[in-house]
Write a structure and sequence with these properties.
172 residues
């Protein structure tokens, strides 16, 4: 992934492809025991996060898509995965502030009212958004940011459609 043409292309991608590149290579580096490489990649990923968020927490490259709400959620899920992996290297992506003073929490807080249907989505979303996509992010955010309100927000998402495995993984 670090040397092939496909890997280099994904590494250079400015949108969610670049985010998920970091998730994979940090994970692979940790899996192979190369904590130094994992830490280097986690530090490097901060620059990508900086380029993806506005000061309000919007993700403009995802908002350009035909399913902007879904892609914004999916990209943020990638960042949450990257942050969880970066923890193992001593890098705190959860609380990292970009040059615009935005963070993963800023991005979640901007996205949340749209994902829960409290605000009208004004960007493209050509198919119905599935609120369950935000559910695991709320569970993780409740713990990471010591914010019980995130956990309360999960009650607004249908219990029947939630994945039991998600609850086992993230609900404390």
């Amino acid at each position: 992934m670090l040397t092939s043409k496909n890997g280099r292309d994904e590494h250079a991608a400015k949108n969610n492809h670049g985010t998920w590149f970091y998730v994979q290579v940090i994970d692979f580096a940790l899996f192979t025991g190369d904590k130094i490489k994992a830490r280097q990649l986690a530090e490097e990923s901060m620059h990508r996060l900086d380029s993806q968020l506005t000061k309000e927490g919007k993700q403009p490259l995802e908002l350009e898509r035909t399913k902007g709400l879904g892609y914004s959620t999916m990209n943020l899920r990638g960042w949450f995965d990257a942050a969880r992996l970066a923890d193992q290297t001593g890098i705190d992506l959860w609380n990292y502030k970009t040059s615009k003073d935005a963070s993963l929490r800023t991005a979640l807080d901007w996205l949340l009212p749209y994902a829960l249907g409290k605000k009208e989505w004004t960007y493209q979303q050509i198919e119905k958004y599935n609120k369950n996509e935000i559910y695991p992010l709320l569970l993780q955010a409740a713990e990471q940011f010591s914010e019980p309100d995130y956990l309360k927000q999960t009650a607004k998402i249908s219990k029947e459609s939630n994945d039991v495995l998600t609850d086992l993984l993230y609900k404390k």
